[in-house]
Amino acid sequence: MKRGKRAFTILEVLLSLAIAGMVMVACVSLLFAMVKLIDDMEDSEPLENHANTVERFLRSAFLNSTFSQTMPEYVVGAVRAGSGAVRLGQNPEIENGEVLHLCFGVARDHPLFLSRNQFSQEKICWLEFREGSGLYLVWTFIAYEEDETDYIVYENLISEYVESVSYLFYSEDRDWEEEKELNLTGENAGQMPLFLCLNFSDGQLSYKRIIPLFSFLESGTSGSNTGIRQGSGVGGGQNNMRGGR
Asked: Which of 4, 99, 145, 189 is most open to solvent, judged by the fewest CB atoms within 10 Å of its CB?
């Protein structure tokens, strides 16, 4: 005698409907969240989106900064001693200058750092603000490029909308001090700031972004100063080559 096929019980059917309902609710919630995100992006100002992108790029660059142990002599002279992954340095093309810049290292490939010959993983970068022109990244490879006998210094425009840059220090008097530039003279000479402040403007709207540096430092501020020689955006994908050494 053949047995009849086993059917679903009412409990199993109800449990399946409950699970299907929860999945549908989750899908609908995700759909509404995506629609809201798209609406927010469409409603937000282009300059605000640009400022947020630049901030994310710099935060990531500072956080992942690493310096090679085999930096060439002219690069070593352009990177001042400092704490942690972000240091102070000078543009390697400028000699005997007093202006310093935030300096960080890159040890991986990135579409921003493209040379005329090949990619190279290890690079040294200097963040440089030029009044009336914007925020630039000056960088060079640690090793010679293929078929080259000199180091080549490149520059990339990060943002033409950066109207001004300032640096925040915490003084010994337990008071905040804001400096327009980093240099070898003055009260905060050769000291690592705690915050980088970027002011964006398109002539109508203005936005300010404050990027902390202390979380990337091993001991707060840099007190070690060594001699330097010296040595600029994510926008536009422009990659200009400058002279070599």
From this structure: 4
**Nearest partner of 63 among 128, 30, 2, 108, judged by Cα:** 108
CA distance 165 to 107: 26
- The residue ranges of every structural domain in the chain are 11-43, 47-244
Which pLDDT tens digit goes with each residue over 66-108? Answer: 887 777 777 777 777 665 688 888 888 876 678 889 999 888 7
> How many whole angstroms separate alpha carbon 148 and alpha carbon 152?
9
- Give the residues across from 114 on adjacent strands: none
Local structure of residue 7 (DSSP, 8 states)? P
Whether 78 contacts 231, CB under 8 Å: yes
* CB burial of residue 195 (10 Å; 0-12, 13-18, 19+): middle
Alpha-carbon distance 148 to 119, whole Å? 13
Note the pLDDT of residue 119: 57
Dump strand ranges (E) for 84-226: 86-89, 99-107, 122-130, 134-141, 152-159, 162-170, 176-179, 182-183, 195-201, 206-212
* Residue closest to 216 by CA, chosen among 57, 52, 55, 59: 59
